[in-house]
Amino acid sequence: MSEKTALNIGVLTVSDTRNEETDTSGKYLVEAIEKDGHLVSVKAIVKDDIYQMRAVISKWIADPTITAIVTTGGTGFTARDSTPEAISPLFDKTVDGFGELFRAKSYEEIGTSTIQSRAFAGLSNYTAIFCLPGSTGACKTGWALIAPQLDSTHKPCNFVGHLLSRGQK
């Protein structure tokens, strides 16, 4: 059996109100990522502003050491929720199955309220980007789906080979 590959992952919290002390979702993601043997190489909190989000995510996807990014927040329907509009234009490819599976799993937990979730994912410059709702519960649900795909030993397939192929076109 092959050894699991540790990845460098960025965590971005999108919020107009949270700070490091009140960011329970970001804290959960950091703990879960590290518990699964990965390294959180960078963590930030940005306002729910399209251009601030794009600036941070663009910097991270240009960094060859960051292989994945997980965001929390800004995926709902309030006037300020703009994570999908900010991040999805940066994708080279979308991972449609992630949002579909997230909502299916979330339906088991919160019922039809999941219809308001705009969780989504994609690949950009050999970096996987997973965008989750802002609640800690949603981050737990999301990480349960993401973790196997960032595990190099997960069969029949995972994203690790795609993420580590940067520069091998």
Characterise the protein shown here:
The structure is a single chain. This protein is α/β, with parallel strands linked by helices and 169 residues long. The chain has one domain (8-163): MoaB/Mog-like domain (Molybdenum Cofactor Biosythetic Enzyme, Chain A, 3-Layer(aba) Sandwich). The chain contains six helices and six strands; from the N terminus they run E-H-E-H-E-H-E-H-E-E-H-H. Strands 2-1-3-6-5-4 form a six-stranded mixed sheet, sandwiched between helices. Strand 1 (8-14), helix 1 and strand 2 form a beta-alpha-beta unit. The chain is globular.
Topology:
Elements: E1 8-14, H1 24-35, E2 39-46, H2 50-62, E3 68-72, H3 83-87, E4 93-94, H4 96-110, E5 120-124, E6 127-132, H5 136-149, H6 160-163
Parallel strand pairs: 1-2, 1-3, 3-6
Antiparallel strand pairs: 4-5, 5-6
How would you concisely characterize the structure shown here?
Keywords: Molybdenum cofactor biosynthesis. By secondary structure, this protein is α/β, with parallel strands linked by helices.
**Could you list the spans in which at least 5 consecutive residues all have pLDDT below 50?**
none
CATH homologous superfamily name? MoaB/Mog-like domain
The total tally of domains equals 1
Computed Rg: 15 Å
CATH topology: Molybdenum Cofactor Biosythetic Enzyme, Chain A
Helical coverage, percent range:
25-40%
